[in-house]
Amino acid sequence: MNLYISAENALLFAAACAVGGLVYRRTKNQQSTAGSAASGDLPTALSAAAFALALLAFLFGAGDGSSTGAEPPSLNEPTTSSTPPPR
What we know:
Blueprint: H1 7-26, H2 42-60
């Protein structure tokens, strides 16, 4: 099964991942001991990435693409009448 992802959505996802990575690196504990490696705050990084993705998707109008290629309403629509039909 192939899943098509538009280039715009892929770029938004990549930007959100970059934001999450930056937050993860910035939240590392600077006072770690010499023997242990410093680790970042993973829940904060994931939350920041999710927020960035939602914000970018809202700003750029990204979605599932279902409205792409939708036809505008035609100008030759039948006129509607407010009077009831004759009996």
